[in-house]
Amino acid sequence: MTYSAWILLTASLVGISCGIVGVFLILRRMAMMADAISHSVLLGIVVAYLLTQSLSGIHMLIGAALAGVFTTFLVQWLHSNNVQHEASIGVVFTILFALGVILIATKAGNAHLDVQHALMGEIAFIPWNTVEIPMFGDMPVATLILLLVLAIIILIIGLFYKEWKITTFDSALAASIGIPVLGMHYLFMTLVSVTTVAAFDAVGAIMVVAMLIAPAASAYLWTDNLFKMIVISSIFGILSAIAGYYFAVWIDSSISGSMAFATGIVFFISFIFSPRHGLLSNKIRPSTMKS
């Protein structure tokens, strides 16, 4: 594959993975948890580096994933102790992200680890860090990780699809029929953390948040069917990745930033033109009913 093809494939995998998980975040009204986790994983990455003095290896993923899960537990703990959910998210992620920034500035300044890379990523470097896969040849490490994470997401969502659906739309009913609602919540937040970590190195925190929220929010405007929403969200994620890449090449700008910008364009097009919940359709429908 060509250099550009690897970038597009990697970004598309981010779009699909985040698109699937993002649908449940939107429906559960937990969109800001994506922002919290995508920022707090920085602390896990820094701590993993300080413990191992290495910027490569599985320990980086483990550290970031643990930070994401820790964020989830801390937010839930504060919320269960009468702190508003939004306030819990805001307090936890700002403190953990700030701690990560402080550690970078004071302990990891001599390493190739900086706040700008954490926020924006550098997907243009992805094709250079490869690993040899039997029968497939050289493949970027980030692409391989995202493929594995996507497989895990599809497997877990598929195995517990009915449980996800019930707990998402009616948690009281789910609890009454014996579904472990809290356990499913933590399993889902772990899935969000793993997805965020897998995409973090390639595209940075900003694009992770954009891909987790905007495609799913756009898909929500087009359909009320859960399965269709997941499919549409994934498609929007891919379209945003491809359009953002070529826009970045055209204006010679940040690839990840342009892809995040493209998710916003997709959302506003959906907000205006979607036939089900779009701004124009909502204005046309009442006038049609009156006539």
UniProtKB/TrEMBL annotation:
Q: Which organism is it from?
A: Lysinibacillus telephonicus
Q: Which domain of life is it from?
A: Bacteria
Q: Where the protein is mainly located, per its record? A: membrane
Instruction: Indicate the transmembrane segments per the record.
Output: 6-27, 34-51, 57-75, 87-105, 141-161, 173-196, 202-222, 229-248, 254-273
Q: How does it sit in the membrane?
A: Multi-pass membrane protein
Pfam families reported in the protein's UniProt record:
ABC-3
Location within or outside the cell: Cell membrane
> Which family does the similarity line name?
Belongs to the ABC-3 integral membrane protein family.
Keyword entries, A-Z: Cell membrane, Membrane, Transmembrane, Transmembrane helix, Transport
Q: Does the keyword Transmembrane helix apply?
A: yes
One GO biological process this protein is involved in is: response to zinc ion
Q: Name one GO cellular component term.
A: ATP-binding cassette (ABC) transporter complex
State the name under which the record lists this protein. Answer: Metal ABC transporter permease
